[in-house]
Sequence to fold (376 residues):
Amino acid sequence: MKLLHLADLHLGRRLAGFDLLEDQRHILEQAVDLCAARGVDAVVLAGDIYDTALPPAGAVTLLDWFLTELSRRGVAVLAVAGNHDSAERLDYAAGLLQEQRVFLAGQFTGAPRRVTLEDGYGPVEFDLLPFVRPAAVRHVLPDAKITDEDTALAAALGPAPRPGVRRVVVAHQMVVAGGVLPGCAGSESCAADVNVGTVQGADAARFDGCCYAALGHIHRPQRVGRDTVRYAGSPLCYSLDECGAEKSAVLVHLSACGAEPELVPLHPRRAMRHLTGPLSELVAAAEHPDDYIWATLTDPVPRPDAMAALRAVYPNTMKLNYAPGGAAAPDAPQPVNLRGMSFEELFGRFFEKMQGRPMTEAEAAALAALREEAEL
Ligand SMILES: [Mn+2]
Fold:
């Protein structure tokens, strides 16, 4: 059986005043074509299907089109709600849609929604777990021992599969491997918390025994601990911090005893690019003028007409800022093991994020004095 794992579509997302619906339609068309070209049996949507609980009409129409096209081609759909979705609204007509092999799990009712599909090797169990917070799991499962995100996920998932059972879990959670938080793209609502290290996650080991865990929540495509526990990532760049990031879908080949993921690149309708240089140079060397542009101008004196000049050449300029000394492109975020850091290192990172500079020696000394006073 072949699955196409997508996540974090965020249909209806707007960025810097630009409506991204046409970009999203372009990606979903690629997904439909991929299904036909590669013989995909089921599309997995791992949450954050919409960008908001009350999506604009155009976003609902687009999802309607996507589900209809897949259904017409005999492709099943397995979808869960993310933290951006309204669980109740996503469940609308779920009972009717399952007749068309569109399986939606919006609300958590005590266990994942179990769907069984068959291939030449026999049955495959799909456990659809919508986004859950520990308090919500505790509310539905009052007898479970839930102290954090990890024990909440364990309780929500229920028992691991018996040996020989092929199970695929679809979930929208923060998942860590060996205490290492995933690397964020920057457009997740949790990205700031991840960078400061205040976020906890469930352990990827909770998916042991499953053939594949199709995850959503983190917008940067990546594996978590093993190749078969994966964030598909968002199919488009959803913040200017993601300029130049490559996006993909995961084509999962399920065999008799395991799963093999293959990354398939997704091509945006318009690339998102960060340009740096003097205004005169940027407008002179305009290539791919329809791209989404973030321009960092190195002119020593701000030009009041700069945005108009840029948009005359690049009509989809999203952002303009100045870095008179020349700006280095920001490095891609790297996964960081926050649990292994000392108090000083952690606070130092936080300070630098807030202030844009490292602590001085005097500030570090003041911190040490305060720490002693607080007996930390
Ligand atoms: Mn998301």
